[in-house]
Design a protein that fits this description.
The complex is a heterotrimer of chains A (777), B (276) and C (158). In chain A, 26% of the residues lie in helices and 26% in strands. Chain A is α+β, with helices and mostly antiparallel strands and 777 residues long. In chain A, the strands form seven sheets. Chain A has an eight-stranded mixed sheet with strand order 3-5-1-12-9-10-11-21, with helices on both faces. In chain A, strands 7-15-14-13-8 form a five-stranded mixed sheet. In chain A, strand 22 and strand 23 form a beta hairpin. In chain A, helix 10 runs parallel beside helix 18 and helix 14 runs parallel beside helix 15. Chain B is globular and about 60 Å long. Chain C is 31% helix and 18% strand. Chain C has a five-stranded mixed sheet, with helices on both faces. Chain C is α+β, with helices and mostly antiparallel strands and 158 residues long. Classes of the chains: A alpha+beta (777), B alpha+beta (276), C alpha+beta (158). Chains in contact: A-B, A-C, B-C. At the A-C interface, helix 1 and helix 17 of A face helix 2, helix 3, helix 4 and helix 5 of C. Strand 1 of chain B pairs antiparallel with strand 1 of chain C.
């Protein structure tokens, strides 16, 4: 028997480090001589900076320097260069960094922040994407058309607050409406929420003699940090080294590059001395980027048999003060706007819109949770109007091999998976046939709601990953990759993939956990649930490279052809006689003949992977291939609702995903239920609340509430496994997906229970009460 | 991380504590009595308060007392909410205290701190108000024992430098039929949308509320409406809602209209529970 | 004699069974002293406002959020951090039940659980939840954490 790793719940590679307190995160580096930077942030949501008085603050104890945007007239941004790392001339959101105090201790830096006096001249503020979209809205960026474009496919519109506009034009919309028996139209609103990674973002920057820049960051994107510092400040890329240890949760929020640029400027301003900038929780919520908000309009038609005929979708993404990656999420929504359903006639306009809110960055699901809410609520409305079973409606319209996506990608069993099979499993796991509305007593109702989901990644067409496999003298292997361990255990998954390929004991594979951009092979970003697919493929190639080297050396020593040999259990053996073998320990670091002569050398396997056949979307029709494949799934929620006070308890949350292949069942369940849990948080209680001046009323965990232990439902997770043929062992991405359908499923369930359409988040008892009161009037 | 410095004192007696306060104040140090410290630390962290000296009262024996003396239950100001819950001498107080912040923080929050702090909810004061408790207060010149109704009016009203040493709760109240419910916006671990405490004494129901208005209170006028004999429950509740001592709060936790709706339900439940 | 501390200076702390001297300001929190002064970085800052529980340590056996305690208040008390546990059953249970992903909340969660197990080895489900709702985990669904605690307390899930 060979060793089996794939499909087994092997323990995490970092398990005992984390369970013992030995695990080191970025802010656990206690370094003598470290200076501390404290951010001075805007108290005005939109205004001109009239004056900054640093006089008093500069004289405070321990203060070494204070920098402002005027000291560094640079712009940053991964899509549009619209973002000064420190506000310059004007501020565009409450909480925006305006200055940095650099002092000997954290206490001294923070104390001096209070002594910095900034005068603003308030400008009219824009607080919703809908308002921002209206002609004549105050412009948040005066010349959005002049910003440098970092990608070829971004389309800012002059004299508007529109940073990007993505169009999908597929089929013939008028024909679709003409064929419709029932058409429903509705609007939806989702507020921004926050990632609330337990580790707040923090960074240390230092510039060594010779202008070597060293950044230590809590980040999902060490290679993007290197690129942005290089492009923003004109430094040779190779002179910048970014170190990322274990990261205390990301959820997309640590994909944005923000504090790194500020810390670099702070260090530069004090002669390169090391400067640490660590967000307080309040800053992590109100200064660093959040989830996007959304206003959506959906018009959906179906023919008499309940088959979808046409979809018109308008998405207005509240990207806040800066574009960051908001435009890519607007694109993501557009390219998957139909959900996993066949709709031949599609018209979608997806806008990335500036407001005076915190700027948005990637958030678990990358826009899919948000548009899925709008679409899946619409499906339930259509089902209700047509008196169709909502599950049956979804099943009837499920995409299949042979159909095409909104961007006209031909769908196959491999690149799509099997939604019908997911729905069938879901139906039995949620006991759908027992009824979805059950009266328990005069005030209590149990109800069920469902949502389907699908997602593909949306990377640059040349996103790539590398991997390195180094044989140790004892025959064990070191695995080095550029993916950051942000939590889900992807580095353990990669070790499993390698162990399976090498047919060896996974305990003999040693994973290098931290990322060091000078040592680690490149990985695009640790985002989009793509590590297993992208890095996994690079690992397989690296393993094959190492195997080839081992086989050829062993073949020479054993005087056979390499094709006669294979590798397993840390041995190279003769296929037809496994007892005839050499230990990898004896050839992995050169082979020494009995007479002392040696041949070969250290075996280092290299592998890389680059996305294949991706194309940008056509600006007029949206035609193009944005990602390699989809993951489909179906989710359900059962609630117990109190008709008297509108409180409710979530009893059960079911998720069925087509996972392709489950590589580590316990870890897969954990990452899916973790996503479900976060989805329920966003659905029920999480939101960033602004007052009329654009100030944030939910900037601490006292007011920004997340789900606490004990309030979780029973979780049910199951899988369909339709292999993604070009992925390691057939595995599909699953990291984000648990979150996507939860808000929609809960809203569908509660809308049914309360007898009122609930088309916004979060679904608080007060919202239900308010909607019912409105209806009464 | 607290960005400014202060001095720390840990007096062993009431006399020492109040003397210290006096001296430190004369030296311009704006001293503060420090119990569990949870509120002082969080407010100092964001510079909402500034002090140059804190006087930790946890080593003062009287402040740590938790015992029955004659016809009174004595609870020192520095006794933690957890200690109160574990001894459980006054179940309504246990219930109210057990919903302040969370369990770990209750290991630090003291009864005195919750009653005397600046955060507006003071949920632990509700049972004290209902039980006609007394407050033992010491100042530099005199010590006094006052009815809680005298010294707690929306918040603690103390003279400069006075220290709340302990609370005296008449024993007869500690075993009366009672009712406690805390409603939040949705997440359980949150400030109250409304916390309601009720006691039934001599056939009459007493009601105290936190979160409804911008201050906690005992609703005597509400009680009058609620205790009308023979009147229909919903009518009594509607009348009680007319007798609030201030406007219902309108905050991100809930609008005033929604609070009115919730409060109506909570009052009905409490009356049902205590009359039923 | 009244204990007082007027400025930065050494205090004696009892941490994980060892008597340790630490130079702190009177205004330094226990969390700050543990991490920045003593290099005991298991306790994590997550909010420094008492809301998240990542910095939880045991003080005389009870879980306390070390961001809500002054270092000087810890004098005379026994402090236990995650570094002070060695192969405790709850640590093993956390590993087996996959009760963490990013691991950042883990030191605080484990200390809350350890406090519960020491103080209430016969705790029921309600008590367990009351203690555990003091901490926030953003990666797991809490199912894994409660599974780990149940396994040590021998609670059969309801």
């Amino acid at each position: 028997m060979d060793y089996i790793s794939v499909g087994e719940s092997v323990p995490r590679k970092d398990a005992w480090e984390k369970a013992s307190g030995a695990a080191r995160y970025n802010s656990d580096r206690i370094q003598p001589g470290l200076l501390h930077g404290a951010l001075v942030t805007s108290t005005c949501a939109h205004g001109l900076i009239k004056s900054i008085d640093l006089g008093a603050a500069l004289t405070m104890p321990g203060v070494i320097n204070i920098i402002t945007g005027a000291d560094f007239p640079v712009l940053s941004g991964p899509v549009l260069e619209d973002h000064p790392p420190l506000a310059s001339g004007k501020v565009r959101y409450y909480g925006e960094p305006v200055a940095v105090v650099i002092a000997a201790t954290e206490a001294q830096a923070v104390a001096a922040v209070g002594a910095v006096n900034i005068e603003y001249e308030a400008l009219p503020i824009v607080t919703s994407p809908l308002d921002s979209f209206k002609p004549g809205a105050p412009l948040i960026h005066e010349r959005v058309d002049l910003y440098k474009r970092m990608v070829s496919d971004v389309y800012p519109e002059k004299d508007t607050n529109i940073a990007d506009h993505i169009k999908i034009r597929k089929g013939d919309l008028p024909k679709g409406w003409a064929a419709s028996h029932t058409i429903i139209e509705a609007e939806y609103d989702l507020p921004q929420a926050d990632h609330i990674a337990m580790e707040t973002r923090n960074v240390q920057a230092e510039i060594l003699p010779g202008d070597e820049v060293v950044i230590h960051s809590s980040s999902q994107t060490p290679f993007s940090i290197r690129k942005e510092i290089s492009s923003c400040f004109g430094i040779d890329l190779g002179k910048i080294t970014v170190h990322v240890p274990l990261v205390g949760g990301g959820f997309g929020g640590k994909a944005a590059v923000q504090l790194e640029l500020i810390a670099y400027m702070a260090s530069l301003s004090v002669g390169g001395r090391p400067v640490k900038i660590a967000n307080t929780r309040e800053q992590d919520i109100s200064t660093s980027p959040s989830q996007l908000g959304l206003h959506a309009r959906i018009k959906l038609g179906a023919d008499q048999s309940g088959r979808f005929t046409a979809l018109e979708a308008i998405f207005m993404v509240d990207s806040g003060a800066y574009c960051d990656i908001g435009s890519r999420m607007a694109k993501s929504m557009a390219m998957n706007c139909t959900g996993p359903y066949r709709i031949d006639n599609v018209w979608c306009d997806s806008y990335c819109i500036y407001t005076n809110h915190i700027y948005a960055t990637s958030f678990r699901g990358f826009g899919h949770l948000e548009f899925t809410f709008a679409l899946e609520r619409s499906l339930d409305k259509l089902a209700a109007q047509m008196q169709l079973d909502p599950l049956e409606l979804r099943r009837r319209n499920a995409l299949k091999a042979g159909d095409s996506s909104p961007t006209q990608v031909a769908l196959t069993t491999s690149n799509l998976g099997n939604l019908e099979a997911c729905l069938d499993k879901l139906k039995s796991l949620i006991n759908w046939d027992q009824g979805r509305y059950i009266s328990i007593d005069a005030n209590t109702v149990r109800s069920k709601g469902i949502s389907c989901l699908w997602k593909t990644s949306n990377s640059p067409t040349d996103a790539f990953s590398g991997a390195m496999v180094i044989i140790n003298p004892d025959g064990s292997i070191n695995l080095i990759v550029g993916a950051v361990e942000i939590g889900p255990g992807m580095l353990t998954t990669l070790a499993q993939i390698l162990a399976e390929k090498m047919k060896m004991d996974i305990n003999r594979i040693h994973v290098h956990m931290p990322v060091d951009t000078r040592v680690s092979p490149h990985h695009w970003k640790t985002v989009g649930s793509m590590t297993t697919y992208m890095v996994g493929k690079a690992v397989l190639e690296a393993a094959q490279d190492a195997i080839n080297q081992l086989l050829s050396l062993a073949a020479m020593v054993l005087k056979v052809s390499p094709s006669d040999l294979d590798v397993a259990r840390e041995r190279v053996y003769l296929k037809d006689n496994p007892d005839y073998y050499m230990d990898i320990a004896d050839i992995g670091h050169a082979y020494k003949y009995p007479d002392g002569n040696s041949v070969g050398g250290q075996v280092i396997g290299r592998g890389s992977f680059v996305m294949r056949h991706l194309t940008p979307l056509d600006p007029n029709t949206g035609r193009g291939r944005p990602g390699p494949a989809w993951t489909v799934g179906a989710q359900a929620v059962e609630v117990e609702y109190n008709r008297r006070d509108h409180s409710y308890k979530i009893l059960k949350a079911v998720t069925v995903l087509d996972a392709g292949k489950v590589i580590n069942p316990k870890h897969a369940r954990g990452v899916i239920t973790g996503g479900v849990s976060m989805g329920l948080g966003v659905a029920t209680r999480e939101e960033i609340i602004y007052d009329e001046q654009g100030q944030i009323g939910t900037s601490s965990l006292r007011t920004y509430k997340v789900l606490h232990c004990g309030q979780q439902p029973e979780y049910v997770v199951d899988y369909v496994e339709t292999p993604l043929l070009d992925s390691p062992y057939g595995a599909r991405p699953i990291g984000e997906h648990g979150i996507i359908g939860m808000p929609a499923a809960l809203a569908n369930s509660l809308s049914l229970a309360a007898g009122i359409e609930l088309d916004q988040l979060p679904l608080t008892p007060e919202l239900i009460w308010k909607r019912l009161e409105e209806e009464k009037r | 991380m607290i960005p400014f410095d202060f001095e720390y004192y840990q007096p062993a007696s009431i006399a020492e504590a109040v003397q210290l306060y006096n001296d430190l104040q004369q030296n311009g140090k704006a001293p503060m009595y420090y119990g569990g410290g949870t509120e002082i630390i969080t407010m100092a962290r964001n510079s909402s308060i500034k002090t140059q000296a804190v006087i930790d009262i946890k080593q003062i024996p009287e402040c740590q007392q938790l015992e029955t003396k004659g016809q009174s239950l004595i609870i020192g100001a520095a006794v933690t909410l957890t200690a109160i819950a574990e001894a459980n001498p006054f179940p309504l107080l246990t219930q109210a205290g057990s919903r302040v912040a969370d369990h770990s923080v209750q290991n630090k929050i003291t009864l005195g701190g919750n009653v005397c702090g600046t955060i507006i909810y003071h949920e632990a004061v509700l049972p004290l108000l209902l039980a006609d408790s007394e407050v033992c207060i010491s100042g530099i010149n005199e010590s006094r024992t006052e009815s809680i109704h005298t010294v707690f009016d929306q918040q603690m009203r103390l003279n400069n430098g006075e220290l709340v040493v302990q609370f005296k709760i008449p024993l007869e109240y500690t075993s009366l039929p009672h009712w406690h419910v805390k409603k939040t916006k949705l997440e359980k671990i949150d400030y109250p949308l409304i916390t309601l405490c009720a006691l039934k004494k001599d056939g009459a129901i007493r009601i105290a509320l936190s979160g409804a208005c911008s201050f906690p209170f005992r609703g005597r006028a509400m009680e009058k409406a609620l205790n009308q004999p023979g009147e229909d429950l919903s009518k009594r509740v509607a009348q009680a809602l007319q007798q609030l001592p201030g406007p219902l709060q309108d905050t991100v936790a809930g609008s005033s209209n929604y609070r009115r709706f919730v409060l109506g339900n909570l009052l009905e439940d409490a009356i049902d529970g205590l009359e039923g | 004699m009244m204990f007082q501390m007027q400025q930065i200076g050494p205090i004696q702390l009892d941490i994980n069974g060892a008597k340790i001297s630490a130079v702190v300001r009177p205004a330094d929190t226990l969390l700050y002293a543990l991490r920045e002064v003593l290099g005991l970085t298991a306790a994590k800052p997550g909010c420094e406002n008492g809301d998240c529980g990542s910095c939880t340590v045991l003080v005389d056996g009870l879980p306390v959020k070390s961001c809500l305690m002054l270092a000087v208040e810890a004098v005379g008390h026994k402090i236990t951090t995650l570094e002070g546990l060695q192969d405790a059953p709850i640590q093993k249970a956390f590993v087996e039940h996959r009760a963490f992903q990013c691991g950042y909340c883990t030191p605080g969660f484990i200390m809350t659980c350890q406090g519960l197990i020491e103080k209430h080895p016969d705790a029921d489900e309600d008590t367990m939840f009351t203690w555990l709702e003091s901490n926030i985990c953003r990666c797991t669904s809490y199912e894994e954490i409660t599974g780990a605690v149940r396994s040590v307390l021998n609670i059969t899930p309801e």
